[in-house]
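All the exercises in this workshop are built on plain-text protein records. Instead of coordinates, the fold is spelled out as a row of discrete tokens. Once this layout is familiar, the rest of the handout is easier to follow. The record below serves as our worked example for the rest of this section.
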Amino acid sequence: MALEEYKRKRDFKKTPEPAGEVASRKDRERFFCVQKHLASHLHYDLRLEHDGVLLSWAVPKGPSLDPTIKRLAMHVEDHPLEYGEFEGVIPEGYGAGIVMLWDRGTWTPQVEDVGAALKKGDLKFTLNGYKLKGSWVLVRTSGRYAGARRGSGDRGPGSGDARSWLLIKHRDDWSGELDIAEFAPKSVKSEGDFEDILAEDTPAIWVTNKPARPVVGGETGAMLAKIIERAAKLKTDRVTAKGTKGAKAERQSPRRRAAVSGPPEGSRRLRKTTR
């Protein structure tokens, strides 16, 4: 898709997301990331570097380490490489919400021709991230595969939708029944959660975008409201703590400050001279 669709959907005068250009990174490992995105609904964006862009799939329920579970993955527009390090707030418009860098690392295709595998709808690859490792496959759905994973309640958009894929973990040393999204919910970049990202002092995130309040309802809307409330409290507590610390320092007597910081340099020289 290159980046035309990505740019068409965004107003870069309003969003802190990178505009980006198709980049070339020869003779190095390919980057991958998973961004946890609270927008109109909570989902996880899997991004694989290929031909200077990030191939992207939106995974509503997030990756699963269980090989028996097939997770719906909707193929979306390619993103610029710079987007792989983005964590913050997207203002009003397409994708408005909070983005967390949930995992990152490198990936290796298990096929000779990635382009041919994408066209065929069967891309096998290995991930080496902080949370996701080992062998995986992305399979485009059709016919009987257009349904959902066993026992999940996920439903695909139906047969014949070229955007609908399944993300499946292969059985290896890194597979298992652990719910990795629940076990490790926080950012690999900031080590924080959504509320911590919102509470950052960075103007582009907190002041300029205020933060973004996308129009959402139901469970996601309630979740976002609580996150914004907790973020505001974190920010207030931090400002209060700084103010208290500063006031305490001002109240210290000169003798107390001297005991903490030590005597002035001149007084140390005077003592040595009089001994």
Summary: The longest helix spans residues 218-251. The chain has one domain: 4-270.
